[in-house]
Amino acid sequence: MAEEQTAKGRKALGRGLWALMPQEAEKEGRSIREISIGEITPNPYQPREEFDEEKLRVLAESIRQHGVMQPIVVVGGDEGYVLVVGERRWRAAKMAGLEKIPAVVQKMDERKMMEWALIENVQREDLNPLEEARAYERLINEFGLTQQEVADAVGKARTTVTNLLRVLQATPFVQELVAKEVISTGHAKTLAGVKDAQLQEALARYVVKRGLSVRQTEALVEQGNVPRGTSRARANPELALVQNELGDALGTKVLIKQQKGKGRIEIEYYSEDELQRIIDYILKSE
Questions:
Q1: What is the pLDDT of residues 167-197, one digit of tens each?
Q2: 174 with 95, same domain?
Q3: Among 4, 101, 213, 256, which residue carries the largest CB count within 10 Å?
Q4: Which of these is catalytic: 4, 79, 87, 286?
């Protein structure tokens, strides 16, 4: 939970969300109020796109029994309040039938609202990689943060932010595989390097089908995404897959060159023994 940060989390955020803990809020003159749940609207910069209904029901039952143990954070306005931190608690409190919820009313601009919502979710590990990447992208594009500033805000290495942003360069199909945790961000980052969208998606299906590691995916992309003048594999995703399946079967690098329905297959070998092994395999297959 965001309210159960480690010492490492505290250091990464400075006084960030820790300044909103009840005892700290009182020290700095911020009071905790009971606010009508109906006066609160969700944070428009909330990076989470999905909320687990079953987990919300569990939290709602806990709130029925014990109440809301940690106040939410809101921004006050003329027409009510906008939620900044604690949307799960707010949703669960509504589900539990509460009319009011404890809240710290805070002044902040839109950038800070998004930063805090992102920080809470990242530290809770509630965001899938795609949601996290989109949140980083918004901080950069809408609020002018650098990748290093985003990394500092969430307490992560800049390379982590960079790699996640590269996932957004992949096709929607590949991004969806990441969101569903079918493939990792490492897979997606590698596949994003394939500019031909049709080939990228075909290679992604192959990666999933074969359960390839990131390193194996890198080798696959290097082999399949060759210059147009060298091979038609780039223009023909199915040919790229056949090329790699044949290479797996023979245990060596295979290159298929095709033009106007005809071409040739090149099979690499590195010794006479390996050549004999390949020949024996082919003849035996017949």
A1: 999 999 999 999 888 999 999 999 998 888 8
A2: no
A3: 101
A4: 87
Mean pLDDT in residue range 118-131:
72
Could you tell me if residue 153 is inside a domain? no
Same structural domain for residues 96 and 209? no
Q: Is residue 41 part of a domain?
A: yes
Q: Tell whether 206 is covered by a domain.
A: yes
**Tokens matching residue 79:** 């027409």
Q: Which domain holds residue 45?
A: 2-124
User: pTM to 2 decimals?
Assistant: 0.53
**More reliable by pLDDT, 209 or 224:** 209
- Residue 120 catalytic? no
Say if residue 104 is in the same domain as residue 173. no
> Is 144 part of any domain?
no
65, burial (CB in 10 Å: exposed 0-12, middle 13-18, buried 19+)? exposed
At 227-283, the pLDDT tens digits run 343 344 444 556 666 777 788 788 888 888 777 778 888 888 888 888 888 888 888
**Torsion sign, CA atoms 61, 100, 18, 21:** negative
Dihedral sign from CA coordinates of 202, 203, 204, 206: positive
Beta strands (DSSP E) in the chain are 32-36, 40-41, 72-77, 80-85, 100-105, 254-259, 262-267
